[in-house]
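As a warm-up, study this chain.
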Amino acid sequence: TWELSAVDVVTGEESEAVLWKKRAKLFRFDKETSAWKERGTGELKFLQHNETRKVRVLMRRDGTHKICANHLVSPTMELKPNVGSDRSWVWSVAGDLSDETPTDEVFAVRFQTSELANEFKELFQEHQKTNSA
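Now compare it with the structure written out below.
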């Protein structure tokens, strides 16, 4: 017989509080092909660091839990409506940390309802103010 022992999984989120989390689909704009590429589906979260009080966006793909968005909510980011959808927002990120090296990205997120999309927008803008303090 095999015995399995518990393993502590370190996510990097241990010193943060989850302020909001909802299911969403994330896309990134591919400059080479001038097309949107699906980045992943999963839970998009606003996390606030317990000490610095800074808020970041973190999203992991369902199943693999691979990070597909990871950046502070910067006061300089501009959240724009995604043309033709009331459930989606677009923004640019200088130095997203999803991968080993920071990359500049243009993200689009789509929620199941316009209510969730509006909730995201309101909180995003609120957290921009928090992070500018």
